């Protein structure tokens, strides 16, 4: 009797439910989809073996074909099932954080541009205090052009130029 109870306890420790296995498989498929959606330069940073690299390259080709792409993601998940994916997850986390910080910087620059167009001299003084490499005259010229374009409902050429000018100088500070 005692022997049966001990084997029952051992069995309970090793038991993984079917639902848990499905959740793990789905997580691996999502990880595979993230890998397929990476840019080539980002994908080079991820430590992948040859089979997985080939499967991801095939996944790129199947992107437009919904059902084939879904099945291929299942295959990629199956390939990753028996591999250590912690290194892959670590690199993907780095890539995500870099993308998030880039998005944050771009949003900040968009806010500066909008503030420059709406507030005028106060915003110019504030942005010059934050970024010393900007030129006041160049800022005023770009702001003036952008306001004229907006008033005339023209394409936002100077609007974009102002953003590029801000981006160049803020990124030079980093």
UniProtKB/TrEMBL annotation:
What do the Gene Ontology cellular component annotations say?
cytosol
Which Pfam families has this protein been placed in?
A: DarP
Report the principal subcellular site.
cytoplasm
Q: Which residues does UniProt call coiled coil?
A: none
Cross-referenced InterPro entries, in alphabetical order?
A: DarP, DarP_sf
Where it sits in the cell: the answer is:
Cytoplasm
Molecular function terms in GO for this entry? ribosome binding; rRNA binding
Keywords, in A-Z order: Cytoplasm, Ribosome biogenesis, RNA-binding, rRNA-binding
GO biological process, alphabetically ordered: assembly of large subunit precursor of preribosome
Entry keyword RNA-binding? yes
The record's family statement is:
Belongs to the DarP family.
NCBIfam families (alphabetical): PRK05255.1-1
The job of this chain, per UniProt, is described as:
Member of a network of 50S ribosomal subunit biogenesis factors which assembles along the 30S-50S interface, preventing incorrect 23S rRNA structures from forming. Promotes peptidyl transferase center (PTC) maturation.
This chain belongs to the protein called: Dual-action ribosomal maturation protein DarP
């Amino acid at each position: 009797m005692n022997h049966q109870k001990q084997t029952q306890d051992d069995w309970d420790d090793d038991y993984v439910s079917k639902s848990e296995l499905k959740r793990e498989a789905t997580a691996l498929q999502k990880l595979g989809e993230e890998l397929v959606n990476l840019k080539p330069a980002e994908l080079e940073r991820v430590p992948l073996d040859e089979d997985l690299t080939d499967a991801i390259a095939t996944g790129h080709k199947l992107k437009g074909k919904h059902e084939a792409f879904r099945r291929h993601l299942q295959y990629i998940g199956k390939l990753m099932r028996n591999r250590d994916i912690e290194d892959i997850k670590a690199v993907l986390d780095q890539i995500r954080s870099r993308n998030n910080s880039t998005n944050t910087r771009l949003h900040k620059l968009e806010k500066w541009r909008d503030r420059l167009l709406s507030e005028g001299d106060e915003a110019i003084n504030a942005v010059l205090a934050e970024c010393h490499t900007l030129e006041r005259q160049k800022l005023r010229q770009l702001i003036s052009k952008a306001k004229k374009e907006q008033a005339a409902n023209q394409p936002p050429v100077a609007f974009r130029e102002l953003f590029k000018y801000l981006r160049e100088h803020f990124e030079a500070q980093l």
